[in-house]
Amino acid sequence: MDGSSVKDLAYSKVIVYVGDRPAWKTPLNVFRADPWKLTDIPTIIKLRDGVEESRLVEKDIAGGLAAFIKE
Prior knowledge:
Blueprint: H1 21-25, E1 43-48, E2 51-57, H2 58-70
Antiparallel strand pairs: 1-2
């Protein structure tokens, strides 16, 4: 996955590798731009019909994952 298209995803869950540490740290990393706009890893994004519905970022995952999944 190159980070450019979310509308055609048929998966309910996808793990995406954003690159090694130096690749992630560059401001030009494709996942820092549209449509993802990631600022932290890990980030969990919930999509509905290919559109972002909500997201949970690194610092909030441990305490918020159960509620996020139930949404």
